[in-house]
Amino acid sequence: GNSVTQMEGPVTLSEEAFLTINCTYTATGYPSLFWYVQYPGEGLQLLLKATKADDKGSNKGFEATYRKETTSFHLEKGSVQVSDSAVYFCALRAGYSTLTFGKGTMLLVSP
Amino acid sequence: EPEVTQTPSHQVTQMGQEVILRCVPISNHLYFYWYRQILGQKVEFLVSFYNNEISEKSEIFDDQFSVERPDGSNFTLKIRSTKLEDSAMYFCASRARGQAQPQHFGDGTRLSIL
After folding, report:
1. I need a labelling partner for A39 at 20 to 30 A (CA). Which of A47, A77, A105, B20 fits?
2. What are φ and ψ of residue A83, in 5° steps?
């Protein structure tokens, strides 16, 4: 079956530090890959997506590259801000099926 | 920007009662979903709905659960005879036609069963 594995959190960083949140997946076929973000007390917001191998999704300074050879979709940001503190979910969708989420990684950014 | 709206934001119910969680998907979307997130755990798929019928459901979505699209705008999740373990955040999502289209989520309804 499909599955997504994310690094355990929380990830604690100082403002302006470099962020990497690892995500690997197992899926049949060629899934689309997504990162969602959940700010405190809010719902899930789509952060970025990639639909085929070597695609790079980007938004708000965050990037992730679809790596088929390593079945990975790691989230990166060059300089995090306090306002980036949230829970980040990696997810995949294979074909027309529904989303499969990872467990989420909490990011805490201190001033 | 259009968004998925969910009501209520917080629902408190006695164990054994029935609850209805409401969602208004984005107006031109055709695919609708319910997910839940038990506190501290991952987001879990419950059910997907297309063309007025369930297209996929998880093992969580048993006879206690049902979904309905009673009119052109609302999409509801009914939970009968609620249990303590039904306490969770319930998210509605919708998606436009097209395989690469992402699902857009509402802010969720926090369901607390006492």
Report:
1. B20
2. -70, -10
pLDDT of A11 > 70? The answer is yes
**Residue of B41, B48, B106 with shortest CB distance to A98:** B48
A87 to chain B, any CB pair closer than 8 A? The answer is no
In sequence order, which residues have a C-beta less than 8 Å from that of residue B62 and are 6 or more positions away?
none
B36-74 confidence digits (pLDDT tens): 999 888 899 999 999 999 999 999 999 999 999 988 789
Distance separating alpha carbons of residues A4 and A102, to the nearest angstrom: 5
Residue A42 pLDDT grade (very low, low, confident, very high; cuts 50, 70, 90): confident
User: Which of A42, A46, A89 is facing B104, going by the closest CB pair?
Assistant: A46
**Residue A2 has what pLDDT?**
87
Q: Which helix (H) or strand (E) holds B84?
A: none
Least Cα distance to B69 among B30, B98, B17 occurs for B30
Cis ω before B8 (30° cut-off from 0): yes
Contact with chain B for residue A79, Cβ under 8 A: no
Mutate to test the interface with B, among A44, A97, A101 (most CBs of B within 10 A): A44
Burial class (CB in 10 A: 0-12, 13-18, 19+), B22: middle
Q: How many CB atoms lie within 10 A of CB A32?
A: 22
Cis peptide before A10 (omega within 30 of 0): yes
Chain A residue with CA closest to B110: the answer is: A41
